[in-house]
Design brief:
Elements: H1 8-16, H2 22-40, H3 48-63, H4 106-113
Length: 117
């Protein structure tokens, strides 16, 4: 089964069972975004560099036994109305076209604590 065909639960299990690495999952998602974004225009901001860096950090925590939750290592997209510290967050609004928050929303913090990429 392809990484992209897995549910979040299946992917997390594959990562826990060392069938898939967090980096492989993240790279697969980023490649799919790159392949289809010009057609679908789903994303305002894609932080490829940040996602790959976070994938490496999360993999290290999983390997060390520090992250064991159901989202550990699973790549997720965060809607553009959820503040993510240091990352362009526009709410797809012309008024906020250049807004870069100095904080992350509680939902984003919870995803990060759970080990989602």
């Amino acid at each position: 089964m392809s990484i992209l065909d897995m549910t979040a639960v299946e992917l997390a299990a594959a990562i826990r069972n060392k069938e898939v690495t967090v980096m492989e999952a993240t790279e697969a998602v980023l490649a799919q975004i790159e392949k289809s974004e010009s057609k679908y225009h789903c994303y305002v901001t894609v932080d490829k560099e940040g996602a790959l860096k976070q994938a490496a950090e999360v993999q290290g925590k999983i390997d060390a036994g520090e992250l064991t939750g159901p989202l550990a290592g699973v790549p997720v997209a965060i809607k553009d109305n959820m503040c993510t510290e240091g990352l362009l967050t526009t709410c797809s609004s012309k008024i906020l076209y250049n807004f870069i928050p100095t904080f992350s929303s509680e939902a984003v913090l919870n995803l990060q604590k759970a080990g989602a990429v």
